[in-house]
Structure formats: structure tokens, C-alpha cells
């Protein structure tokens, strides 16, 4: 992959994150805290839709793409069933909206309108997911990036319009803005992928039963683990609302939105690395090449954490005073995308060996850790408790993924991975309870320690590259 292509892939996540960061303070200033909290509920629901309602077939599409001789047959195999399941799910939401309002933690007076908005957003999310995969696997990085930027830009334009035109600043208005941007983006993606969609939906194409079996065998085990992973990613928002209120959720969601800047690295990495790992394995790449990716990813994420740890107080300049707790939450909130991204490098053994069923115990362990801590910490520490439980769950997720992967595939070095990530984890928790000048000194100490550790690991990796015969001996 040349530099130009890599820059095109990076353009979308970087620009989308930058625009999203501009939208966060605007959203906080224009809408009340409870409306911001409702947007967080919507985003959490859409994340679940992308993980569960796709039935894992989106991952099967990526896994089988390079091996499939007929791409139309492959897309039909992965698209029709999730589309039907999503349509049925949205229909059930609309029919039983009054009973489901409590499950979604929605205000009862607005439940009908909000459920309708949620249903449209869910259906659009699933369709967009498959369209984006077509564009991604066809290696059209600039178009993919533009589709990532467009909804963020529309939201950024819509929020000032609501403010200056004097429109209703309620939860309905806030969620409508996000859904409207998503629908426009999905419609454009459908147009760009119209040939594939028409072929899958209307042309008579002979199905490949063996391919269908492989798609189901790889994808379906990911459904339950995907549902649990969604719970792991979103439980904090629902439990925080349950033990506290939508205003606490609103403040917490602003911290998560600022932390989402780190997902730039996650999105770029997932877009580029996931398809490439199968190519490298097919070409017989050595374990050192995979280890190099792990260490380089750790380096990038650790640097991002250090910068956020040092400069997190600057967020207070851009948000109302009632969001002051965001400064303490931010270093904790970035751990979710940090650990998830790093685990994408260490999970290669599970993906390459096609043993996706191992993801189920991984996510169960992580969710158990996270929920137990949430039940204990949220009632007392509210937003801080939610952030600690979320970070703890994803730390457990990263370690479980790593340990299973290196046992069923090839052993690779983990000492520095675990040491650096543990330092990051405990320092993020500690800084939430430090005050005054001690906090500044603590941040300097942590940053210096991490820099020294990473420097030593880079030197060690270079030595292993010169002596590849020691790959299997790496602890």
C-alpha cells in the first residue's frame, strides 16, 4: 500500500474526528444536558445495530473477499439475511414502541417520535455498513473517506441552524439531526454501490452453498459475541442513566465524544490492517512482522494517551461549566478505543485460524468485569465510576483476546504490551483523584516512564528483527 492510498484512508477518520470535535462543544452549548444524553443513547443503540443486526456477515465478507471468485454471489450471501432481519427488527420497534420506551430509557411523552427516529437510524446504519464494506474492499479510499466526513459535516452545519433559527432544542431535535445526516449519507452510499445492490437484490444469481456455509460458520458465532461486545461498549451509558440520570449521561457522553478523537487511530488501523493481515499470512510473513505492527501500534496509542493526559485540562475552555468533570474523565475514556485498537493487532491468531467462537468467552469475561465494577462504582462516583468500569472492561478484553490468540496460533511477545498498558490503566484511574500541583507532577512522572519504556521496546524489536530465529522464544 503506497503513501497516497494510506493518506486517502487516513483522510476520512482524521477529518471526521476533527469535525466531530468541533460539534461536541456546539452540542453542549446549544442543547440541554439531557438532550446530549439522549444523543448518547442513540449512538450506543446504533453501535449495537452495526454489531448485532449484521449477524457477523460483514466480517465474513471481509474474510472471504479475496478468496471469492464471484463477488456478486458473495455480497448476496452476506447482505440479504441481515437486511431482512433489520427490517423486521425496526418494524417490531414501531409496533411495540410504547412497551419498548422503558427499555430504551426514553421519555414517555416523546417515546413514539423517538422510537421512529431510532428505527430509521438503525435501518440506515446496517445498510451503510455493507455499502462501506464494498467501497473499502474495492480499495476506493477517497470515496470511503468522504462518506465518513459527510455526516459529521452535516451535523456541524445543522446545530448552528437550530440555534439561530430558534428551533426546539429538545431530545427529538437533537436525535433528528444525527439521524438526518445518517440517512443522507446512506442514500449517497447506496447510489455509489447501486450496481452491487441491484445485482444482489434483483438479478438471478446462482447461490454457492459452500460459500453460504463458510459465511455462516464464520459470521454467526460473532453475533452473540458482538451483542456482548456492544453491551461492553454501551453498558456504562445505560447503567449511568439507571443509577443517576440523563444529565450525568450528558456530561459523560461529552467526555466520550472528546475521547473519540483517539478512534482516528482505531478506524485507520482497522480499515488498513484487517484486510492486509490475511494477505501477509498467505504470503508466509514471519511473526516478527506481526510483532512490529503490535509495537508500532502500542507506540502510537501510548503517545496519544500521553498527549491527552497532559492537555486534557484544555477541554474546559470549550464547554459550559456544568461539564467540568470532563477534564477528569477524558484520560479514562480514551482507554476504550486504545485497548480495542491494540487488541486488533493481537487478535490475529483467532482471525487467521477462523476460530471466531473464541470471541464469546473473551467478551463474556470482559463484560463481567465491567458490569461488576459499574454496579459497585457508579452509585458512588457516577461519571468517574462509569469511566473506570468501561476502561477496566476493555483492559480485560484486550488481555483475553491476546492470550487466546497467542495460544491457538503462534506465541508472540507480550511482556511490554502488558506492562505499558497496565501503567496507562492505573495512571488514568489515579489522575481522576489527584488535585492541584500533585496532579501536574504525577502526569510528568507517568509520561516520562512511558517514554522510557517505549524507547527500550523499540530497541528490543530491532534486535529481534536482526535475529528472527528467536521468534518463538519471545516471552
Provide key terms for this protein:
475 residues, 21 helices, 80% helix, 0% strand, disordered C terminus, Polysacc_synth, Lipopolysaccharide biosynthesis protein, membrane, cell membrane, Poly_Biosynth_Transport
Written overview of the protein:
It is a multi-pass membrane protein. InterPro entries: Poly_Biosynth_Transport (IPR050833), Polysacc_synth (IPR002797). It holds the Pfam family Polysacc_synt. The chain crosses the membrane at residues 7-29, 35-57, 78-100, 112-130, 142-164, 176-197, 218-240, 252-273, 293-311, 323-342, 358-378, 384-404, 416-434, 440-458. Keywords: Cell membrane, Membrane, Transmembrane, Transmembrane helix. The chain is an all-alpha fold and 475 residues long. It folds into two domains: 1-219, no CATH class; 228-468, no CATH class. Helices cover 80% and strands 0% of the residues. The protein has 21 helices and no strands. It has helices at 3-30, 33-52, 57-64, 71-95, 97-100, 111-137, 141-165, 171-192, 194-201, 209-219, 221-243, 246-259, 263-282, 287-311, 326-333, 335-346, 348-352, 359-381, 383-408, 415-431, 436-466. The longest helix is centred in the C-terminal third of the chain and has 31 residues, at 436-466. The radius of gyration is 22 Å and the shape is globular. The two termini are 31 Å apart.
Amino acid at each position: 500500500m503506497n503513501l497516497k492510498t494510506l493518506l486517502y484512508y487516513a483522510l476520512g477518520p482524521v477529518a471526521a474526528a476533527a469535525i466531530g470535535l468541533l460539534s461536541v462543544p456546539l452540542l453542549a452549548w446549544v442543547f440541554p444536558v439531557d438532550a446530549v444524553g439522549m444523543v448518547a443513547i442513540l449512538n450506543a443503540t446504533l453501535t449495537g445495530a452495526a454489531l448485532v443486526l449484521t449477524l457477523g456477515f460483514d466480517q465474513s465478507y471481509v474474510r472471504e473477499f479475496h478468496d471469492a471468485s464471484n463477488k456478486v454471489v458473495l455480497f448476496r450471501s452476506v447482505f440479504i439475511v441481515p437486511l431482512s432481519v433489520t427490517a423486521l427488527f425496526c418494524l417490531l420497534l414501531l409496533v411495540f414502541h410504547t412497551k419498548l420506551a422503558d427499555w430504551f430509557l426514553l421519555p414517555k411523552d416523546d417515546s413514539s417520535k423517538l422510537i421512529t427516529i431510532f428505527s430509521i437510524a438503525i435501518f440506515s446504519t446496517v445498510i451503510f455498513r455493507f455499502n462501506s464494506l464494498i467501497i473499502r474492499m474495492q480499495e476506493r479510499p477517497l470515496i470511503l473517506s468522504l462518506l465518513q466526513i459527510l455526516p459529521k459535516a452535516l451535523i456541524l452545519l445543522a446545530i448552528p441552524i437550530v440555534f439561530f433559527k430558534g428551533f426546539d432544542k429538545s431530545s427529538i431535535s437533537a436525535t433528528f439531526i444525527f439521524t438526518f445526516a445518517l440517512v443522507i449519507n446512506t442514500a449517497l452510499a447506496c447510489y455509489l454501490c447501486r450496481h452491487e445492490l441491484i445485482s444482489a437484490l434483483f438479478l438471478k444469481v446462482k447461490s454457492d452453498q459452500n460459500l453460504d456455509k463458510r459465511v455462516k460458520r464464520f459470521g454467526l458465532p460473532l453475533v452473540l459475541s458482538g451483542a456482548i461486545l456492544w453491551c461492553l461498549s454501551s453498558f456504562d451509558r445505560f447503567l449511568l442513566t439507571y443509577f443517576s440520570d440523563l444529565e450525568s449521561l450528558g456530561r459523560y457522553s461529552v467526555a466520550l465524544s472528546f475521547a473519540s478523537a483517539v478512534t482516528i487511530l482505531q478506524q485507520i488501523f482497522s480499515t488498513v490492517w484487517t484486510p492486509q493481515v490475511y494477505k501477509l499470512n498467505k504470503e508466509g510473513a514471519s511473526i516478527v512482522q506481526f510483532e512490529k505492527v503490535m509495537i508500532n501500534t502500542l507506540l502510537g496509542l501510548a503517545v496519544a494517551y500521553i498527549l491527552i493526559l497532559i492537555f486534557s485540562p484544555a477541554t474546559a475552555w470549550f464547554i459550559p461549566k456544568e461539564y467540568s468533570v470532563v477534564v477528569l474523565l477524558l484520560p479514562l475514556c480514551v482507554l476504550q478505543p486504545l485497548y480495542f485498537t491494540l487488541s486488533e493487532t493481537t487478535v490475529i491468531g483467532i482471525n487467521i485460524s477462523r476460530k471466531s467462537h473464541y470471541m464469546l468467552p473473551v467478551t463474556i469475561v470482559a463484560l463481567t468485569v465491567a458490569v461488576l465494577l459499574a454496579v459497585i462504582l457508579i452509585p458512588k462516583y457516577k461519571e468517574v465510576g462509569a469511566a473506570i468500569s468501561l476502561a477496566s472492561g476493555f483492559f480485560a478484553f484486550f488481555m483475553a483476546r491476546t492470550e487466546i490468540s497467542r495460544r491457538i496460533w503462534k506465541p508472540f511477545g507480550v511482556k511490554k504490551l502488558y506492562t505499558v498498558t497496565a501503567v496507562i490503566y492505573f495512571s488514568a484511574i489515579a489522575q481522576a483523584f489527584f488535585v492541584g500541583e500533585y496532579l501536574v507532577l504525577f502526569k510528568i512522572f507517568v509520561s516520562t516512564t512511558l517514554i522510557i519504556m517505549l524507547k527500550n521496546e523499540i530497541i528490543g524489536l530491532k534486535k529481534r528483527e536482526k535475529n528472527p530465529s528467536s521468534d518463538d522464544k519471545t516471552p
